[in-house]
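Thread title: Can someone regenerate the structure for this chain?

I was given the following input by a collaborator and told the matching structure tokens would be attached. They weren't. Posting the sequence so someone can regenerate them.
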Amino acid sequence: MSLWLTRRAAAEKRRQLRAYFLRRRWLAFDLVRLRKEAGLDQNDVAKALRCTVAKVSYYETSERPVALRDLDEVLLPLHNVPEDRWDDYLRAARNARQKGWWEGS
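Best answer:
Regenerated them for you:
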């Protein structure tokens, strides 16, 4: 393989890595924004999800990908997200859950 192809492949992997983390960070950042706009704190969200505040924090810092069920059934309605925007959030959550090349299959 030529050096050019190796560099091109490496650049593509870096692009994929950035896109993966950007999707996760965008969703996490927007969950915080939506929660604050709804006048809620992490305790309120944890009660609605029936989970710990730590789990909410993991979602909001993108340490863990958001569970689709949590997003669809609790977070989007709780945060008063218009239903016509739900697909954007669900797609972002699905994409953020896809494993990258560095994680194996």
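The chain has a mean pLDDT of 86.
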